[in-house]
Amino acid sequence: xxxxxxxxxxxxxxxxxxxxxxxxxxxxxxxxxxxxxxxxxxxxxxxxxxxxxxxxxxxxxxxxxxxxxxxxxxxxxxxxxxxxxxxxxxxxxxxxxxxxxxxxxxxxxxxxxxxxxxxxxxxxxxxxxxxxxxxxxxxxxxxxxxxxxxxxxxxxxxxxxxxxxxxxxxxxxxxxxxxxxxxxxxxxxxxxxxxxxxxxxxxxxxxxxxxxxxxxxxxxxxxxxxxxxxxxxxxxxxxxxxxxxxxxxxxxxxxxxxxxxxxxxxxxxxxxxxxxxxxxxxxxxxxxxxxxxxxxxxxxxxxxxxxxxxxxxxxxxxxxxxxxxxxxxxxxxxxxxxxxxxxxxxxxxxxxxxxxxxxxxxxxxxxxxxxxxxxxxxxxxxxxxxxxxxxxxxxxxxxxxxxxxxxxxxxxxxxxxxxxxxxxxxxxxxxxxxxxxxxxxxxxxxxxxxxxxxxxxxxxxxxxxxxxxxxxxxxxxxxxxxxxxxxxxxxxxxxxxxxxxxxxxxxxxxxxxxxxxxxxxxxxxxxxxxxxxxxxxxxxxxxxxxxxxxxxxxxxxxxxxxxxxxxxxxxxxxxxxxxxxxxxxxxxxxxxxxxxxxxxxxxxxxxxxxxxxxxxxxxxxxxxxxxxxxxxxxxxxxxxxxxxxx
Length: 646
Fold this sequence. Notes:
The radius of gyration is 26 Å and the shape is globular. Helix content is 33%, strand content 20%. The chain folds into three domains: 1-170 and 241-329, TIM Barrel; 337-509, Glycosidases (TIM Barrel, Alpha-Beta Barrel), CATH 3.20.20.80; 515-644, Golgi alpha-mannosidase II (Immunoglobulin-like, Sandwich), CATH 2.60.40. With 646 residues, the protein is α/β, with parallel strands linked by helices. It has 20 helices and 26 strands.
């Protein structure tokens, strides 16, 4: 089936009532012609870039990227202005990010906006916010597209992909479409959802219940518009096919500007039906299929990340049959990591990653994993009893409470009480457990909550949103000074992350991406399961690495030195990883001496002690509080090891 036929089939599944409408059919085919023209332009640009003599090898790699490049990425999320003022400032810090080990940049909202919701209220989808463009460039580059293209080129030269945030469910109330809709413009009136009573969709929950009392906003008597978020964010009406066409044009515009991926904000809410929750309806999945078909036709490998705050069993529906989003957040895992850290027990993580809770996903798809992001530590996806425990443990300042206790607005360092060893262990989990990791800007050097930024934001928006605390501006002079001091906490956190990311990128390729992860029940010499130890085995898909694996172990206890039993039959090898200039080299130490204490090295280059002095059939690894290791295991007993420690 051709692209045109395939897209037509999806289109008329979305709009079956229009299947025999000749005007709609003509409009659809004209739109496909438009898509084909854009594909030609993008293909020509890629061909010309490949032929340029000064094209760097890393840039060529981006042009010839794997279709599943996102599975092996390390993502860094940032607000351009808060990170380093504007796009020129971001360009100036690309070497810093490359040196850290970042391979994908997630740009939180960058499009023109009145900023009542930190940029998720978009006023113009084809224009960069003016404050993100250097003032000396604005006259010649009023939309910011030239500076954005320069940024894209510089990022690609450093082998860094670019993911941008798009609010797809709603616009700003200042968007031209909505302004004209208020004026009863016949073209744009139906771009939004209207009511004369404001009583429809009464089964739809109110998301911002702390600042909104209804999903309907009154304009005047007998005139209301629908919104799932703030009153200044009217929802788009995807039952109007022109909305689908225009939002697809937005994607195509940014693809032409070099964007590699899109975060699809609030996608469960795109389609509304009376007498439903208006979440994750069939119309949503058909729209995603439509966009994915366009991406695969125009620029194969363009990634779409689903932002759906739901249980994994529900989120997997957004992967479809590998024909919707390629990636999605595993939202419940993040609070369960924090619960495990607080309870000093692997059980919350183990439960969350059980296949009955987090099902297997298609091979080309991927979970995205994070500890902190621009939002709160959300407790929406945990049971009420767990929510109370997590909230009471981590909300160390009542000002951090989000939506009456449904979350905690704080950065990683604040949550973990500024304990360097604990922060390093948490980052070990982030970079070695399932999915593609997201590092939130500033967390690489232990950035803390920003009281000043909260006050500034509240004064500007008059919206009491505690998430402003865990955003904030990077103070680079102070940061760089501390990074140059090896005794500072900032330096210790930064260089620990840098090393982990280097090892991850250069040595863990078979075991990252969408690899198998098995949480293990590690035992002591008394054959008792040690719940304080979080251990998991990562094994690769396929025959090439069937007999190899990555064993990650973490002592979650703040006070106990623990010993866990490892079988010699597992043939655990500890490569010695050494720095030589800017390169990493390895040499394998394969001998395992029974009956004595052996000093070995893990992949991170840390010294581990295996104690086999009491038993010739097994040995113990010693774990001090918050200690963690990445151990490569090899041989024909890897699967035996996994099955015997589950």
